[in-house]
Design goal:
Order of helices and strands: HH
Number of strands: 0
Distance between the termini: 136 Å
Helix content: over 70%
Largest sheet: none
Radius of gyration: 44 Å
Structural class: mainly alpha
Number of domains: 1
Length: 113
């Protein structure tokens, strides 16, 4: 009779033990899944921060380059207008007036040493 009573109690304690082990496994798996999710979220946040910093830096560089291009384009337009002016009526005289280091045809160059 004692054997019959001890068996159900053994079965109940085994069931309780198995249930606790199962609960621990589930808790461990849940913790592991939460850790993985937190790690991936952290990785995503860090990646977004780095991407935003790189994007900001590229925007600044683009602004600087756009300013340089604008200055150089302005210089180019000015030089093109000046060049075109040399091919209009009297352009050769304007060129000669600008080039004051040139010697007039009836003058001799003197070189001092």
């Amino acid at each position: 009779m004692q054997k019959a009573l001890s068996e159900p109690s053994d079965a109940a304690s085994r069931a309780a033990l198995l249930q606790r082990q199962n609960d621990r496994r589930e808790m461990f798996c849940s913790f592991l899944a939460l850790s993985v999710k937190l790690g991936l979220t952290l990785l995503g946040v860090v990646s977004l921060v780095r991407l935003s910093m790189a994007y900001q830096e590229r925007l600044e560089r683009h602004g600087e380059m756009a300013a340089v291009v604008e200055v150089e384009t302005s210089k180019l337009r000015s030089l093109q207008r000046r060049f075109d002016a040399f091919f209009t009526m009297g352009g050769d005289q304007r060129l000669m007036d600008e080039q004051d280091q040139w010697i007039a045809p009836n003058r001799l160059r003197v070189i001092w040493r």
